[in-house]
Amino acid sequence: MKLREEMMKMNLNTAVAALAISVATVTAPMAQAESQDPIKIAVNEWTGQHLSANIAAELLKKMGYSVEMVTAGGLPQFTALEQGELHFNPEVWDNSITDAYTNGLTSGAIVDMGQLGLEPREGWIYPDYMAEQCPGLPSYQALYDCAQAFANAESFPNGRLITYPADWGTRSKSVVEGTGLPFNPVPGGSEGAMVAELKSALASKEPILMMFWQPHWVFAEVDMNWVEWNPAQGECVEEDQQRDTACGFAQASVNKIVSKSLPENWPKAAKFIEQFTLTNAEQNAMILEVDQGGRPLEEVVQDWITANEAKWTSWIN
């Protein structure tokens, strides 16, 4: 009996030791954060980027890092990253960049951590009913002859083109000027303002031509068409186009970028960032939940984290 009791005690001690090792393994990332200085993550103007930034932030927190979310304009953020005032942006569309971004990559002040995994498209979109008023669409050449079909009182006789918000760059304006299209580019105020104007136009079948992008929930809810351009001969440069050979817009890759201080100060975080990915399908579904379902972004982020634990566990360990 005594021998049996001793064996039971040994087994209990072994079990407790195993549990302690297991707990240590689970909590190890929390204990191994190289610094408690906050990793500052850029938050831009569109819902998809809010989602990618907040998912990355929550996973970094699971690794034991302090995280600070910083609202950052699409253009000024590159200077802040170059100067180390921001540390990380998980979703940078590389066809909306500035000299500060390019120079930062060249100097090493900004580090490219690879693609996020999205498969984007950008360009001008229009609804089916506008094709009836502008024969020849989807070719961009049709817009020369039916610009008035897209006009409003302020733009007439030119068509009205809703472009990206001003601090996202002037790519549509460059294409209009280079090709001589009779359209007035009008910057949208924000993603939300652009979507509201699109939905209003669709509801009353008003004319609309808008610069837009995917992934986005819009394409899961309404039928929209893309203006088509000539195939690019090499790189498509918005600032250098002519009427007969216009290629429209360079199609982006979506990259994760960091300041050089991040891999220096938080090397384990840098390894996580290299592995972090999202797909169009994942992001589209989450954007729809937030923008149309009215769910808090934080809840949608937590749903993704819960559903994808098998995926992200390997990233953070």
Automatic annotation (TrEMBL):
Asked whether the UniProt record includes Ribosomal protein among its keywords, one would answer no
InterPro entries recorded: ABC_Gly_betaine_transp_sub-bd
What keywords tag this UniProt record? Signal
Any one GO cellular component localisation term in the record: ATP-binding cassette (ABC) transporter complex
- Give coiled-coil spans as residue ranges: none
UniProt signal peptide: 1-33
- Which Pfam families does UniProt cross-reference here? OpuAC
Give all residue intervals belonging to the ABC-type glycine betaine transport system substrate-binding domain: 37-306
Q: Which GO terms describe its molecular function?
A: transmembrane transporter activity
Q: What is this protein called?
A: Glycine/betaine ABC transporter substrate-binding protein
Q: Which organism is it from?
A: Parasedimentitalea marina
Which lineage do the record's taxonomy fields give for this organism?
A: Bacteria, Pseudomonadati, Pseudomonadota, Alphaproteobacteria, Rhodobacterales
